[in-house]
Amino acid sequence: MFSVATLRVSKKTGLRIVLGLALSYALGGMTSSAMASAQDGSVAVGVNISPATLDPTTNPSEGIRNVTYANIYEGLTAVDEQGAIHPLLAQAWSISPDGLHYTFFLHPGVHFHDGTPLTCATVKFSLDRARSPESLNPQKLVFENIQDVSCSSDMTVLVTLRTAHASFLSELAWADAVIVAPQSASGNAQHPIGTGPFIFKDWKRAESITLEKNQAYWGTPAKLNAVTFRFYTEPLAAANALLDGQLDAYPSFPAPEMAARFEQNSAFVVKQGLAPFKAMLALNNRRKLFAQPLVRQALMYALDRAGITEAMDIPGALVLGSHMSPENPNYTDLSDVYPYNPGKAKALLKQVGVEPGTRLKLVLPPIGYAHTTGELVAAYLEQIGLNVTIVQLEWPAWLAQVFGHHDFDMTIIAHTEPDDIGIYARKDYYFGYNNSSFQALYAAYEAEQDPVKRHTLSVQMQEKLAHDVPNVFLFFVPRTNIARREVKGLWNRLPLPATPMSNVFWGQ
Amino acid sequence: MSILHRITGEARFPLLGLGLGCVCVLGILVPGVVLWLAHLHAAFSINIHARLTPPTPSHWLGTDPLGRDTLAFSLVGAVNSYAISFFSMVLALGLGTGLGVLAAGTGQKTKIIANGVVELGIAFPPIIIAALLVTLCGAGVVQEICALALFFIPGFVRLGQQAAANIYAQDYIAAARLSALTPWRILLRHVVPNMVPGLLVQFSVNVALAMLAETGLSYLGLGAPPPLPELGRILAFYQVHIYDHPHLVAVPGVVVLLLVLGTNMVGDGLRDRFTRQEKKS
C-alpha cells in the first residue's frame, strides 16, 4: 500500500537522515552542490512547464520558449531586456516607404550546431515553412501576411508583405519566428538544432534538459559551460530544490507566497520583474451564450476582480481591463469599466434570458494561478445563478482541447506573449472573437508607421476590448525571480517568454 | 501488536480503544456533516477580503487563502474524503468477498479467476489505476471510488476465500450438507454470518488505509475536481503557505491523522471484542 509503505522508515534510514542534516548545517552557507556547479561553470535553473516537444515553431507551449529561445534557437531580430528590437541573425535591414518590402542582410559566418551555414536559403525555408498551408506554427496568421521570400544574394533576403505590418520586426524576434535549417527542422521537436550560444545535450522527459556551451558560437560566446533546466510542478518541491542547492536560480518562481522566506535568506536574491502576463477567463465566443456581449459583460460584473487579484498574494499585481499588461509602453489602465456588481450581473443575465442554473464547463490547465482563480470564478458565477463544473487537464490535453479543437466554454489562462492584442483580430483563434470594427482598428494600427499615431490606435483597441469584453480580463502579476546571490546576469524584466542564459555567470 | 493496542487493549480497559477511536472519528465527522449539510446548496463561503486572518471567535482557526473558515473547510473535506473511502470499501467488500466466497464454495474455475484477480490487482499500483480512470473517464467522485475499490478488492478476495474455506471445512457444514440444505442456503445461513466479525475488522482497518490512499490521490489531483473539498487537495492547496502560515497545513493534516488513527482504533477494538468472545465461547 503506497501511502503506508512510505511511512515505515527504518531506524537506520532515520539515523542517516539526521546525519545528513547535521552535515549540511555544518557546511553552512553555500551548499555543496551549488559550490560544485560554481566550480564547473554550470547553472541549474528551475522552470514551471515541462515541454512536450522542443520546437517552438510548431507548438505554442511557453515551456519550450523558456528553455530553447535565445539559448538554442535565434531569429533574424532579437529583443533586449527592455523590449527594444536589435539585429541578430540579420545584422541590418531596410524597409521600403510603403512598409511592404523588407531587405535583410544576414550576419556572415553563422553556423547551425550541426555545421550547416546560415544563408538566405535557410531563412527562406524557415519563413516559407511557417506560412505554408501545412504550417503548424502557432503564429501562422502573422506569417501568412508574407507574400514572397526571395534571395538577391546568398546573404540578402527580400521579404514582401501583403499588407503593411509595422509590428513585423518585433514579431520576427518571437520564438515562433526562429530560423531553422531544412535538414534538421523536422527533428527539432526531439533534438533541437539552432544557431544559438548553447547546444542541446540531453533531455530527461518531465525532469530536466541540459544544454552545453556552443564553443563555435558566431557571436559573443556564453559565459557558462552548461545549463540544466529542471521542471517542477509542485511549488514546495521547487522551494526545497532551491534551498538544498539542487537549483541555482528560479526565474519565474511558482509560489510568490514563499518569496518572503528567500528574502530573509542571505544566500538568495529575490527580484520582481515586469513581463507580459495577461491572465483572463477566456470565453468561447463561438458558443451561442458568449456570442452575446451582454452575457460577457454580466460575467465582468459578476467577478470581484480586485479580490481575485488580491488573492494572488503578489505585491505589484494589477487588475486588468483589457488585453495589455503594464510592461507594454502602450498600456492604459481600463480596469474600472465594469466594476464588481453582482446585482447588475444578474439583471443583465435576466435581460438576455439566461436561465438560472445554466451549466458551464470551466477547463483549467495545470498551473497554480488557474487553480486558485478557477475556484474563485466558480464561486462568483454560482452567486449569479450559473452552475460551473471544473475540469482539470494536463497541458497536452488542454492545448488539444482548447487551443486545437475550440472545445470549451471557459478556461483560465495567462497570455505571456508580448504585444499580442492582434489575436483579437483573428476570428479563427481559439476564443473565436469576430468583430469587424476591432479588425479595422487593428489593420489601421499595423498599416501606421508613426509611433504617436500607433499609440493612439493601440489605446483605441484596448478601449474597444475593455467595453466589448471578448474575454473576462483578470489580472497582471510581476514575475518573482529567485537566484543564489552569486548567480549574475539573469534577465529580471522579460519582454517575452524566455530564459536567456548567454550572459549568466557566477560572480561574488 | 501496536503499542496503543497494548495500552488500551488490556483487560482493565477493554473498551477504551474502541471508545477513543469512536470519539476521534465522530468528533470530526459529526460537526463535519452538520457543516456539510449547511453548505449543500451554496458555494463554500469564499471571502477574499478576509483571507488568511488569525483565529477569531467566528473563525476558530482563522481563514484560508480564499477567506474560507479553515476548520470548517477541513471538516467538510474530511466528510467527503471519509465518505469516498467508506463507499469504496463497501464496494470492495461486496465484490471482493463475494468473489472469494464463490471461489471457496465452488469449483476450480472460479478459484483460478479469483487468483487471477488477486494477482492482477496487486500488480497495479493504485496511482496507475486512478490515473488510468481519470484519463479515460475524467476526474470525479465515482472514478475515485472505483479506483480505490479496485485497489482493495484483491485483499477482500483473499480474505473471503480463506475465511469461507475455513468455515466450509467445519463439521456443522458437513452436517448441513447431510441434511440436504441447498448450497445457497448453506452459504447464506451458515457461511456468511460466521464471516461477519472477521470482515468487519478487515473493513474498518481498510477504511483507514483507503482514507490515506484517498488523501494521496486527491493531493496528486487524481481525486474529484474542485470545488468539492477533499483533504488531500486542501493540503496541496495550503502547502505553499507552510512557511508563512504553518497552521494552515496542520489543520487538514491533523484531521487526516485523527480520522485514520480513530478508524484504526475502532478496528483494533472490534478485533479484541471478537477474539475475546471466541475465547469465551
TrEMBL record, chain A:
Subcellular location as annotated: Periplasm
Listed Pfam families: SBP_bac_5
Q: Which InterPro entries does the UniProt record give?
A: Peptide/Ni-bd, SBP_5, SBP_5_dom
The record's CDD domains line, in alphabetical order, gives:
PBP2_NikA_DppA_OppA_like_6
Coarsely, its chief localization is: periplasm
Keyword check for Cell inner membrane: no
Keywords, ordered alphabetically: Signal
Where is the secretion signal located?
1-38
Provide the Solute-binding protein family domain boundaries: 85-414
Question: What family does the database annotate?
Answer: Belongs to the bacterial solute-binding protein 5 family.
Name the UniProt record assigns to this protein: Peptide ABC transporter
Species the sequence originates in = Acetobacter malorum DSM 14337
| UniProt lineage | Bacteria, Pseudomonadati, Pseudomonadota, Alphaproteobacteria, Acetobacterales
From TrEMBL, chain B:
> Where is this protein chiefly located?
membrane
Asked if the Swiss-Prot or TrEMBL record annotates the protein with the keyword DNA-binding, the reply is no
Assigned keywords, A-Z: Cell membrane, Membrane, Transmembrane, Transmembrane helix, Transport
Q: Which domain of life is it from?
A: Bacteria
* A Pfam family hit: BPD_transp_1
Domain named ABC transmembrane type-1: residues: 78-267
InterPro entries found in the cross-reference section: BP-dependent_transpt_permease, MetI-like, MetI-like_sf
Which Gene3D superfamilies does this UniProt record tie to the protein? MetI-like
Is Transmembrane among the key words of this record? Answer: yes
Task: Tell me the compartments it is located in.
Answer: Cell membrane
Q: What is this entry's stated membrane topology?
A: Multi-pass membrane protein
Q: Where are the transmembrane segments?
A: 12-38, 82-105, 112-134, 140-157, 199-222, 247-267
What protein family is recorded?
Belongs to the binding-protein-dependent transport system permease family.
What protein name applies here?
Peptide ABC transporter permease
